[in-house]
């Protein structure tokens, strides 16, 4: 596609830009500045890579206006190059299904309701009363249980499982191997044995959500587990029953959330962080990698450690802990000098 | 179903109860006290929710006798409302397969032995010499490798894999995406390379066990990996080769167990806890979230931290660590005052 | 097979050994010294098990020469019994596919290129332009997306997913449920929402690699994610986009690597360890269980804790932390005695 087609995407999205160069150049791929060729879209997001910019062979570079003078090729100057790059790369690599219709080896119930241009790949199972919105793409091996509703323009990865009654909005991606609506960990103890609490709530996932590969979002025990709009969730994340993840939150790999915990809007949770059950967090919290949240967090801010504290305090504590040897020796020295003083008196 | 049918379940299970109200009311679902309607079973497990009890519209509430007077509707008074709720909810939501027989798209070896009322859903693979007990339900996409034995009344979730020779008892659930009997991590180092140790043991899982979504239980290297009766295991748990999990233990999400470790009976392991290999734990241990067990634990009790210590000690240490700044200043002040004293002498 | 066939394997691998006993004995299985019978291969790797050696009924034992005199049965004396055992056990349990060809229920694209003796089991999906090398075994339920290249002598486990364009070398194993080439976690923030960065790099996996059950290796954002030759990776490991794992490294269960991190050659990473993004480690590093690496590690060595420090320092710090109570009391005592001195002066 020609650069002018890319620019028309920016026009449609009402994004301010300045173009410099030849709009007729053909762009077919994306590449880093160093590996780009004449047909590549590239971007500069940090002045660390100015040398790469000077030598790039890219067809067009998205950058901030202050770097335009140093760009040896066509450039698109914008306020936020990384965001604009994402929009343009989505056009260069449209996430479109390979065909419309149902592969012969798929098993689709007669009562399933597939809208226009749905793609059901090989060996997929779609059970009774499932509805799937237009242009949604279900990859090979996925299993969609009865009464599930999936919106339009979704991508359901290979070997994903979505259990009965769950609801998924529009423009949402469930990456391969993820399990949505599996049974939560609800058991009543009874004299050394465990009696199962039937898990009859649903998982309700909003629009523009992404759930990572092999992640698990358990169905609610009675009420629903909820992932609000615009949440992004990485791989191997565990979300227990009745958790609510607030709008726009981002959850990194291997984080885990115990039951009935409610994460505020626009939280950022780094890798391997863990949340105990039955607590809540304020909006706009940031939890560091490996942090452990054991109580409700009432105020926005950055938190670290286990149990979490404010990140600034935690960093200070880490330094103190590393100086414990020195502190122990200072105490010993004080004891010695005090003894001397006592003896002299 | 009418309330008197529910009460007959309690009779059959020899559970003491007192009923108050109208046994002819029809119950079709479960609900929390706040969202219940005339056809709902609900329960009260904590006096925190007394206000909800007062206003509930539920058809019947399971509660302790001291709260019966405050219940505006039919009630079942019992010693342990949560356990009794679990039994009754299992009746309202029977976990029954949708049909008996083998779906047309499933691939079942001629030598497989399926007992009565087995349900094999779409796209399932059942290989040579597998045996599956009566009323066991194998959901779409599961793969059962050769010589596996699965007991009666089990539920094998979608896209589960059970590798060759493994044994699964009765009334056991393997949730979706779990891998049972995958190869363990056994390698002999040889000049910077790794030579594979064939993993020829089995996984042997008892009765009334539950393994969570996308969890992995590796087969033994030579002897077996064993999950004893009545264990419940949550999502994304890693159980390495030759581990033994003692009867009645409960393991929460994302916990991990390295090879040949032996967990005692009735252990409770919280989320993201980790166990080094070749150690054992006593019966009735409780390990807190994110704890790390690096040595054998000989005594029952509660343990926390990494490496674990008794929870009471760990809690004290956490407080001390947060006061390190204060301790450092106390030392500084001591040094100053001592210096003054020394100068005065 | 007779012991002399096993010995010829050692000859072919140019391994020095001394045999003592009767080479005509038939070996059909492996067993621990305690459970071995006349047809078992066993090994002794530690003098802890000398008593078991004395009483073993094994057909042949691999051991170091100093223990040969105490072995009551046939023995093979070698320098490294565990490595030699691995080689011989591989012969006793050849990892061979059950058949050559394509199962009837598999869905294989016409443009897929399968070399000789490839085994494609039931319900497998192989898409357009995939190539699979000779004697590679693809187990039931695996999904191989378009343009993937898999080498010879590989084993692709059940319900594995390999996404488009990824490359896998020879003699490599992808264990069941692993997701190779899923989309990485690349998003550009935009006013409280997230705009997807198309993930268009590949995963490139070398020869003699093993990826564990339900692990995830994300495709690169633009360039590739790379797992070099002879790496072994355990279950439920998360490897984000553009990570490089250096040759010969071993990664234990539930470890996680954030994006663009580069692990050196021959690193050993223990369970539940975590690595932040955009850092690198030296060759021959060892990271302890639950350690957290937040910065580049320039020197080989053993590291522990979060954030990591040299293991020896970390161990000392742990002891100090446990003595904080004592230190606090020492400070209190110093304050008291100092006060007394001050009052006396």
From TrEMBL, chains A, B, C:
Q: Where in the numbering of this chain does the Mannose-1-phosphate guanyltransferase C-terminal domain appear?
A: 128-220
Instruction: Please name the catalytic residues of this protein.
Output: 241 (proton acceptor)
Query: Which superkingdom is the protein from?
Result: Bacteria
Q: Is the Lipid metabolism keyword given for this protein?
A: yes
Please list the reactions this protein catalyses: a UDP-3-O-[(3R)-3-hydroxyacyl]-alpha-D-glucosamine + a (3R)-hydroxyacyl-[ACP] = a UDP-2-N,3-O-bis[(3R)-3-hydroxyacyl]-alpha-D-glucosamine + holo-[ACP] + H(+)
Quaternary structure annotation from Swiss-Prot or TrEMBL: Homotrimer.
Give the protein's recorded name: UDP-3-O-acylglucosamine N-acyltransferase
